[in-house]
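Intended use. Records like the one below are meant for learning the mapping from a protein sequence to its folded structure. Do not use them to infer anything beyond what is encoded.
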Amino acid sequence: MRLRFLLLVAVTASLAANGCRPQSAGFTAQDEAAIRGMFDARIADIRAGNWVKWSNQHAEGVVLQPPNSPTIKGRAALLAWGQGFPPIDSLALSDIQIWGEGNLAYATSAYKLKLKDLPADAGKELLVFRRAPAGEWQVVAFSLSSDIPSASPTLANPPSK
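Structure written out for the chain above:
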Protein backbone atom coordinates (compact mmCIF):
# COMPACT_ATOMS: atom_id res chain seq x y z
CA MET A 1 0.00 0.00 0.00
CA ARG A 2 2.81 2.38 0.91
CA LEU A 3 4.49 1.64 -2.48
CA ARG A 4 1.29 2.59 -4.34
CA PHE A 5 1.07 5.83 -2.37
CA LEU A 6 4.71 6.72 -3.16
CA LEU A 7 4.17 5.86 -6.83
CA LEU A 8 1.05 8.06 -6.91
CA VAL A 9 2.96 10.95 -5.29
CA ALA A 10 5.83 10.57 -7.81
CA VAL A 11 3.48 10.50 -10.81
CA THR A 12 1.50 13.49 -9.50
CA ALA A 13 4.69 15.47 -8.85
CA SER A 14 5.97 14.65 -12.32
CA LEU A 15 2.72 15.74 -13.99
CA ALA A 16 2.64 18.94 -11.93
CA ALA A 17 6.24 19.77 -12.82
CA ASN A 18 5.62 19.22 -16.54
CA GLY A 19 2.45 21.27 -16.40
CA CYS A 20 4.31 24.20 -14.82
CA ARG A 21 7.10 24.34 -17.40
CA PRO A 22 6.86 27.36 -19.65
CA GLN A 23 5.53 26.44 -23.05
CA SER A 24 7.37 27.76 -26.08
CA ALA A 25 5.37 30.06 -28.26
CA GLY A 26 4.08 28.48 -31.44
CA PHE A 27 5.08 29.73 -34.86
CA THR A 28 2.01 31.52 -36.16
CA ALA A 29 0.87 33.06 -39.42
CA GLN A 30 1.64 36.43 -37.77
CA ASP A 31 5.23 35.28 -37.15
CA GLU A 32 5.59 34.31 -40.79
CA ALA A 33 4.12 37.65 -41.87
CA ALA A 34 6.55 39.50 -39.58
CA ILE A 35 9.53 37.67 -41.07
CA ARG A 36 8.21 38.21 -44.60
CA GLY A 37 7.99 41.91 -43.72
CA MET A 38 11.61 41.79 -42.59
CA PHE A 39 12.58 40.58 -46.07
CA ASP A 40 10.77 43.57 -47.61
CA ALA A 41 12.46 45.96 -45.16
CA ARG A 42 15.89 44.36 -45.75
CA ILE A 43 15.65 44.91 -49.49
CA ALA A 44 14.38 48.49 -49.09
CA ASP A 45 17.15 49.31 -46.59
CA ILE A 46 19.88 47.77 -48.76
CA ARG A 47 18.65 49.52 -51.92
CA ALA A 48 18.56 52.83 -50.02
CA GLY A 49 22.02 52.23 -48.55
CA ASN A 50 20.54 52.46 -45.05
CA TRP A 51 23.00 50.00 -43.54
CA VAL A 52 22.34 51.10 -39.94
CA LYS A 53 18.64 50.27 -40.20
CA TRP A 54 19.46 47.03 -42.04
CA SER A 55 22.01 45.97 -39.42
CA ASN A 56 19.53 46.61 -36.59
CA GLN A 57 17.42 43.68 -37.83
CA HIS A 58 20.25 41.42 -36.70
CA ALA A 59 21.11 40.08 -33.27
CA GLU A 60 24.16 41.53 -31.55
CA GLY A 61 26.04 38.25 -32.11
CA VAL A 62 24.94 37.70 -35.73
CA VAL A 63 27.07 35.53 -38.01
CA LEU A 64 27.25 36.22 -41.77
CA GLN A 65 28.88 33.83 -44.22
CA PRO A 66 29.31 35.84 -47.44
CA PRO A 67 30.40 34.10 -50.63
CA ASN A 68 34.14 33.87 -51.24
CA SER A 69 34.92 35.83 -48.04
CA PRO A 70 35.70 35.17 -44.39
CA THR A 71 32.90 34.87 -41.84
CA ILE A 72 31.68 38.13 -40.29
CA LYS A 73 30.71 38.04 -36.60
CA GLY A 74 28.78 40.63 -34.65
CA ARG A 75 26.46 43.48 -35.55
CA ALA A 76 29.25 46.11 -35.61
CA ALA A 77 31.30 44.04 -38.08
CA LEU A 78 28.15 43.41 -40.14
CA LEU A 79 27.45 47.15 -40.29
CA ALA A 80 31.04 47.86 -41.41
CA TRP A 81 30.70 45.17 -44.10
CA GLY A 82 27.46 46.71 -45.37
CA GLN A 83 28.84 50.24 -45.36
CA GLY A 84 31.78 49.02 -47.46
CA PHE A 85 29.47 47.42 -50.04
CA PRO A 86 29.81 48.71 -53.62
CA PRO A 87 26.93 50.77 -55.05
CA ILE A 88 23.94 48.61 -56.03
CA ASP A 89 22.20 49.01 -59.39
CA SER A 90 19.51 46.43 -58.59
CA LEU A 91 18.61 43.76 -56.05
CA ALA A 92 15.65 41.41 -56.03
CA LEU A 93 14.62 38.36 -54.02
CA SER A 94 12.38 35.54 -55.17
CA ASP A 95 11.13 32.18 -53.96
CA ILE A 96 11.08 33.23 -50.29
CA GLN A 97 10.28 30.21 -48.11
CA ILE A 98 9.80 30.52 -44.33
CA TRP A 99 9.53 27.79 -41.68
CA GLY A 100 9.51 28.03 -37.92
CA GLU A 101 8.84 26.40 -34.61
CA GLY A 102 8.56 28.22 -31.33
CA ASN A 103 11.17 30.95 -31.06
CA LEU A 104 13.26 29.86 -34.05
CA ALA A 105 12.62 30.24 -37.74
CA TYR A 106 14.60 29.85 -40.91
CA ALA A 107 14.10 31.07 -44.43
CA THR A 108 15.56 30.64 -47.88
CA SER A 109 15.36 32.79 -50.97
CA ALA A 110 16.98 33.33 -54.32
CA TYR A 111 18.58 36.67 -55.14
CA LYS A 112 19.61 38.64 -58.22
CA LEU A 113 22.15 41.37 -57.62
CA LYS A 114 23.71 43.89 -59.97
CA LEU A 115 26.51 46.03 -58.58
CA LYS A 116 27.63 49.18 -60.37
CA ASP A 117 30.30 48.42 -63.00
CA LEU A 118 30.36 44.67 -62.13
CA PRO A 119 28.75 41.63 -63.74
CA ALA A 120 25.33 40.57 -62.45
CA ASP A 121 25.20 37.89 -59.76
CA ALA A 122 22.51 35.40 -58.83
CA GLY A 123 22.44 33.06 -55.89
CA LYS A 124 20.63 31.97 -52.77
CA GLU A 125 20.57 32.73 -49.08
CA LEU A 126 19.73 30.90 -45.88
CA LEU A 127 18.70 32.94 -42.83
CA VAL A 128 18.11 31.86 -39.24
CA PHE A 129 15.83 33.99 -37.04
CA ARG A 130 15.30 34.00 -33.28
CA ARG A 131 12.51 35.67 -31.37
CA ALA A 132 14.11 38.18 -28.97
CA PRO A 133 12.83 38.53 -25.39
CA ALA A 134 10.73 41.56 -26.37
CA GLY A 135 8.99 39.41 -29.00
CA GLU A 136 10.52 40.82 -32.18
CA TRP A 137 12.36 38.58 -34.64
CA GLN A 138 16.07 39.05 -35.30
CA VAL A 139 18.43 37.49 -37.81
CA VAL A 140 21.04 35.47 -35.89
CA ALA A 141 22.84 33.90 -38.85
CA PHE A 142 22.78 34.00 -42.62
CA SER A 143 24.73 32.58 -45.46
CA LEU A 144 24.93 33.83 -49.04
CA SER A 145 25.97 31.63 -51.93
CA SER A 146 26.48 32.75 -55.51
CA ASP A 147 25.33 30.50 -58.34
CA ILE A 148 28.12 31.87 -60.53
CA PRO A 149 31.15 29.56 -60.45
CA SER A 150 34.23 30.99 -58.80
CA ALA A 151 37.36 31.36 -60.90
CA SER A 152 39.31 29.60 -58.15
CA PRO A 153 38.73 25.98 -57.13
CA THR A 154 36.01 25.44 -54.50
CA LEU A 155 34.02 22.47 -53.22
CA ALA A 156 31.40 23.24 -55.86
CA ASN A 157 34.04 23.81 -58.54
CA PRO A 158 36.98 21.44 -57.82
CA PRO A 159 40.05 21.50 -60.08
CA SER A 160 40.03 18.87 -62.81
CA LYS A 161 42.70 16.17 -62.74
